[in-house]
Structure to design on (341 residues):
């Protein structure tokens, strides 16, 4: 089936571009409370599931053994900008495990914003794996391997004990078997799995409430949730949706982006998990979709309203700062969301 158009981009008084997608909202008992598009489709959630990938780090006791603080646990769930605070924190996580940047297998890229790249150039330096947006997650994998006594080498391999444990987590949280037939390779070289959008939303409902989880996993999920909402800057950084939303909602919402137009969220006060996918992978549309979901579901004070509104119906401006159009959800999608709320 073709997914419906959920977001449109205007120029003047005409629609210039359209983004199709799907959204699943599931409660912590596993009931689909809202679905649009193909919510059964297998979707590579990519970095949107990093909080689930961090569960073994915490529930194994490795985070305590390494004396990781909330900022470091949040960084283990991050797709960060590669700012100095992010790279520095990833480096500290490695040092606590007795490891170094040479142990990272995530690859190297420049920081997200040119200002941070310019600082490196001015210092006569270039980027290293610590600047990779996934360096915190990889530092967490390495720390886990070191503490539980499995090899740190080749920790990104499908058959490495760390990756096997992550598959176990996905199957427990989402209730879906993942394996080689649904596996791809992520941008940072770890295995990534195409899970049903509805099942992914269920995983994040349970992550936010602990429903259906054993005591240790529920405690680990709560600790990771609290770390991310208390240290939202570590999860992304400046001018980022995840940081802005978690910062302003102060513990009410966990939200995390993934590559190719994926978002996941936990809303504990409602017992809901959310997973969505913009078919063409456009971040602008995925952000608008998630902002619209939160707008429909959450009661807001003036401050929360103001920040959320900056991610809704985003204006498009040209190089002369002239308002030329908008990115907005289609009216039918907004009406359906409001009806659910």
């Amino acid at each position: 089936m073709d997914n419906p158009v959920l977001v449109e981009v205007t120029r003047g008084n005409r629609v210039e571009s359209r983004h199709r997608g799907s959204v699943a909202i599931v409660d912590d008992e596993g009931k689909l409370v809202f679905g649009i598009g193909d919510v059964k489709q297998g979707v590579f959630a990519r970095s949107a599931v990093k909080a689930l990938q961090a569960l073994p780090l915490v529930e194994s006791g490795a985070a305590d053994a390494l004396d990781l603080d909330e900022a470091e646990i949040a960084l283990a769930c991050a797709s960060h900008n590669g700012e100095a605070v992010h790279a520095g924190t990833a480096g500290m996580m490695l040092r606590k495990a007795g490891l170094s940047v040479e142990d990272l297998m995530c690859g190297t890229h420049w920081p997200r914003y040119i200002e941070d790249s310019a600082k490196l150039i001015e210092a006569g330096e270039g980027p290293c794996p610590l600047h990779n947006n996934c360096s915190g997650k990889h530092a967490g994998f390495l720390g886990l391997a070191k503490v539980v006594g499995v090899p740190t080498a080749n920790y990104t391999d499908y058959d490495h004990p760390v990756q096997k444990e992550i598959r176990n987590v996905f199957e427990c949280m989402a209730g879906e078997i993942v394996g080689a037939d649904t596996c791809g390779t992520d941008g940072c070289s770890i295995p990534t799995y195409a899970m049903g959008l509805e099942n992914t939303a269920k995983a994040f409902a349970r992550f936010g409430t602990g429903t259906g989880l054993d005591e240790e996993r529920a405690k680990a999920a709560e600790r990771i949730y609290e770390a991310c909402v208390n240290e939202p800057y570590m999860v992304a950084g400046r001018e980022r949706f995840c940081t802005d939303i978690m910062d302003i909602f102060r513990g009410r919402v966990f939200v995390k982006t993934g590559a190719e137009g994926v978002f996941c969220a936990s809303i504990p006060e409602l017992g809901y998990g959310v997973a969505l996918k913009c078919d063409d992978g456009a971040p602008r549309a995925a952000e608008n979709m998630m902002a619209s979901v939160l707008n429909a579901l959450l009661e807001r004070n003036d401050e929360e309203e103001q920040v959320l509104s900056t991610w809704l119906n985003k204006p498009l401006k040209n190089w002369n700062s002239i308002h030329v159009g908008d990115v907005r959800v289609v009216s039918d999608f907004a009406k359906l969301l409001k009806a659910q709320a």
In short: Residues 5-340 form a domain with the Beta-lactamase fold (CATH 3.40.710). The first helix runs from residue 50 to 53.
